[in-house]
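Sample intake sheet
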Amino acid sequence: MITPLLLIGIITALGAAIRGNWSPCGESLQAQIHPLGEKSRGNIWGVTMMSFTIASIAAGGSLAAFSGWLGGTLFDIDDLALLLAGAFAVLAGILDLSPLTPWTPRRQVNENWIGRYRGWVYGAGFGAQLGVGFAVFVMSWGYWAMLAIAFVSGSALHGAIIGAVFGLGRGVLLFLSRRSTTPESLVAFHASMMRFKPVVFRATGIATVATGLLLML
């Protein structure tokens, strides 16, 4: 059953994951891992993409599941959990709509893996790092709110679902470039990504705030 708290966590996680597609790391991977690039390296793009997505889901789900388990072990805040989850989401959404950027490690994945290993190997390695989130650039306050929401849920299962949604959202990163089969289509894809960035950033911030407000009351 999807509870209000779980839904707040899912929307917050999804918004954070989508914004992550415009991180320095995300943009770099989009420029290198696409059908045209994978074909030139003798890899199958679909295999690389699937290994990336599966690893991202597994890593995100595991981290948030641990956060949920830890919260349930240390505290008993069932009466306040929904209110806190909503407050975290609202605060994160407001901050994402502001000029303030979240704390983030200034780190990218090791792009030297591309060409050195098989596509499914670096796909899984990159996916795991992006699924964990804090292993690379963090583009949204919603990421930290997501972990906090998993924590106050007090449930490893709820945490796993929230984190898996984040991982799935990060996995969309490579799927977006599925039509980049020629140099021209690749250039057009990156141009469209830059054009939609402001709209997507505003939409995810508003959605996170609205979800938190509507479901916490």
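Comment: The radius of gyration is 17 Å. The chain has nine helices and no strands.
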